[in-house]
Amino acid sequence: VIVHDVNELTEKLFPIVEAMQKHFSAGTGTYYSDSIFFLSVAMHRIMPKEITQIIQVDLDLKYKTNIRDLFDEFDNFPEGAVIGIAREMQPVYRHTFWQYRRENPQTKVGDPPPDGLPGFNSGVLLLNLEAMRQSKLYNQLLEPAMVQKLTEKYHFKGHLGDQDFFTMVGMEHPELFHVLDCTWNRQLCTWWRDHGYSDVFDQYFQCEGEVKIYHGNCNTPIPED
C-alpha cells in the first residue's frame, strides 16, 4: 500500500488543470483545492512511470463481483483508447448541452443510448496511464487553448470535474474511450427524473444484465443483498 499526500498531488495537478477548472467546477473561479477533482485527467503526468494502469473509483460503490475482473477490461481497449468509462445514466448532459442541441437539432450529443451520446460517469474509471502518456491527441486536449475551443463549440459549463471533461472530449473524440458496460457502474441516482426529464428518464436509466458494481450517487441507498 502506497499512501499519496493530497497536498503534494494537488500541487502537481494545479498547473495542468487550472485552465479547465473554470469550465467544470461548481464554484465561481478557480479554487486550488478543486484540482483534486481532476486527478484522473492528469494521472499519467504525476504517477511514477512504472505505474502503467490504474483503476480509480468513487467511495459510494458496492462490489458484486471480484474487482480483478474489471482489470480484464483493459484487454478490451480498442487501439487509440486511453480510458475505460461507463455512460452517464441520467439526462444530465441532455440538460448541459441544451444550447448546442438547439443549434444542432440533428446531433446525437446528449441523446440516450444505444445510438445517442449521453456523456460519461466517472464513478468507475480505467486509466491506461501508458496509453495516456503516449497519446498525442489526448495530451493536446489538456492544453488550455483546446479546452477553451471545445467549451466554446459546445457552449459547455459543467460542475462535475473530470466527468465533464471526459464527456466533452468524448463528444469530439469518442475513439479515446473504451465504453464500459452499464453493469460495471450501475448508477442509482434519479434526481433528474423529478427535475424536468421524467418523459425521457428511463431511456437513460435502464441497464440490462447482472450488476457488477452499484453506484449510490447523489446519496442514493444501495440495495441490500
TrEMBL record:
It holds the Pfam family Glyco_transf_8. It comes from the Eukaryota. Keywords: Transferase. InterPro entries: Glyco_trans_8, Nucleotide-diphossugar_trans, XXLT1. One of its GO terms (biological process) is protein O-linked glycosylation via N-acetyl-galactosamine. The keyword Zinc-finger does not apply. GO terms for molecular function: xylosyl alpha-1,3-xylosyltransferase activity. The keyword Transferase applies. GO terms for cellular component: endoplasmic reticulum membrane. This is XXLT1 xylosyltransferase. It comes from Pelecanoides urinatrix (Common diving petrel). The lineage of its organism: Eukaryota, Metazoa, Chordata, Craniata, Vertebrata.
